[in-house]
Design brief:
The protein is mainly alpha-helical. It contains 5 helices and no strands. The longest helix has 17 residues, at about 5-20.
């Protein structure tokens, strides 16, 4: 379990990354990688076991690229890990 504030911080970071992401960004901004954004988003969850973070990594990346399609799944994942 993680503190709810950490889950909310991670969700905020995903939101910021999703707002800044656009198709073709790696071509327009040399050096940019989606993985860089994903790692930044996962920083507040560093206390989780590596296996849990690995599972979240995919959902976070998808939520950045397609927030409409994956925000609910990410929210559910984070809620299931957060203290009440």
């Amino acid at each position: 379990m993680i503190d709810r504030a950490h889950a909310e911080d991670a969700l905020f970071r995903v939101s910021v990354s999703a707002l800044r992401y656009y198709p073709g960004k790696p071509n327009v901004e040399p050096g940019y990688t989606l993985n860089e954004d994903v790692e930044w988003c996962l920083e507040p969850l560093a206390d989780l076991p590596a296996s849990v973070v690995a599972e979240l990594r995919r959902t976070v990346g998808l939520a950045i690229i397609d927030p409409t399609g994956f925000r609910e799944a990410l929210q559910e994942d984070l809620n299931s890990l957060a203290d009440e």
